[in-house]
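Sanity check record (used in CI):
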Amino acid sequence: MQKRKLTQVGIIIRKRLIEVGKTQVQLAKEIGTSKIYLNHILHGERSGKKYLAKIFSILGIDPDSVKRTA
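Expected output for Helix-turn-helix domain protein:
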């Protein structure tokens, strides 16, 4: 079984979660989805278009900086 890898956006979100001391469960509740769905977004299995702006806002991530690194 192949190990799943985080996308560039997933890496940025995960690092920021650690910096601000939040869990994926907490973030998922704040954006109104499940931890499983959030995990799918971080691994690129779902686009997350509906949630990305809210995730960036909650975590204080500049969306333009994400686009430059993606």
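The first helix runs from residue 8 to 20. If this sentence no longer matches the regenerated tokens, the check is flagged for review.
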